[in-house]
Specification:
The chain is an alpha/beta fold. Helix content is 41%, strand content 20%. It has one domain: 3-Layer(aba) Sandwich (Rossmann fold). Strands 3-2-1-4-5-7-6 form a seven-stranded mixed sheet. The protein binds S-adenosylmethionine.
Length: 212
């Protein structure tokens, strides 16, 4: 995205906030050594994170677990909305930095295999900004494997018309369902940023307890 595009998207004040956040996170990265993506993508630079938090808030969830939570940006925004949240991430360094940055937010190193412990009271699973690295069948299988208490799956989908920016897969709900995903589309929030939509899906086993 060009500088002009970013200015158009954020405005001057937003652009300054974004630049300041990036500087702060780049300094934090010198200590914690987390993946550079996180220093480049704070909430101030990615306004769609607010849309994700608002959309989840509208579900009035019992609790949210995010897998691949990074620094816990969405957890931070959900905490402002009084929504219970646990963030899991495979990368130890980003979890350490997130705990430092977001004191008191429940961030843990882990992944799908830890959902049983982490998600006991939660009913929303969030996957944001990384599922495009998975093949559709892989994503469907992982999403199906979550404990029965989860009612909703929230996931970003790279748009078919998005420019080629290194996204390996561009999932559609139709394809995910053909690959066996046991969840149906509740809401598609289109174009939360220039390259992605946000899909809010309801697990079908929540509708059909016999499938649990
Ligand atoms: C691009 S970042 C997105 C962070 C956060 N969701 C956000 O949007 O700000 C992707 C994160 O997902 C984590 N991740 C990728 N695959 C994962 C998996 N299978 N289990 C747990 N974490 C994973 C990576 O370690 C990385 O921190």
């Amino acid at each position: 995205m060009s500088l002009q595009d970013k200015l158009d998207e954020l405005g001057w004040l937003g652009f300054l906030r974004c630049s300041f956040s990036r500087l702060k996170l780049r300094a934090l990265r010198l200590v914690f050594r987390f993946d550079p993506w996180h220093a480049d993508a704070p909430c101030a630079c990615r306004p769609y994170k607010q849309i994700v938090a608002d959309s989840i808030g509208q579900l009035v969830p019992r609790g949210v677990v995010e897998i691949g939570c990074g620094l816990g940006d969405i957890g931070h925004l959900l905490r402002e909305r009084d929504v219970a949240y646990i963030g899991l991430d495979a990368e130890a360094a980003v979890i350490a930095a997130g705990r430092y940055l977001r004191r008191g937010l429940d961030l843990r190193q882990g992944s799908f295999e830890h959902l049983g412990d982490a998600g006991a009271d939660a009913n929303v699973l969030l996957l944001l900004n990384w599922p495009h690295g998975l093949a559709s069948s892989e994503l469907a299988t992982l999403a199906n494997g979550v404990p029965a208490g989860f009612d909703y799956l929230v996931v970003d989908l790279i748009r078919q018309d998005a420019p080629a920016l290194g996204f390996t897969h561009r999932h559609t709900v139709t394809q995910l369902r053909q690959d066996g995903l046991q969840a149906s589309l509740l809401t598609l929030v289109e174009r939360i940023d220039p390259v992605r939509d946000l899909a809010i899906l309801k697990y079908e086993r929540a509708l059909h307890p016999s499938l649990r």
